[in-house]
Amino acid sequence: MTRTRLIERALGDWMRARLPHGLVEFTMFLLKQAWAALFGFLLLAGLFVSDRLWPDDWVFARYDALFVYALSLQAAFLLLRLETLQEARVILLFHLTGTAMELFKVNAGSWAYPEPALLKLWGVPLFSGFMYAAVGSYMARVIRLFDMRFAPFPPFAASLALAVAIYVNFFAHHYIWDARYVLMALTVILYARTRVWFTIAEHAYWMPLPLAAFLSSVALWVAENVGTNSNTWLYAGQTTLDLVSLAKMGSWYLLLYVSFTTVLLVLRDATSRAPLEAAIPAEPATR
Question: The whole model's pTM is what?
Answer without folding.
Answer: 0.84
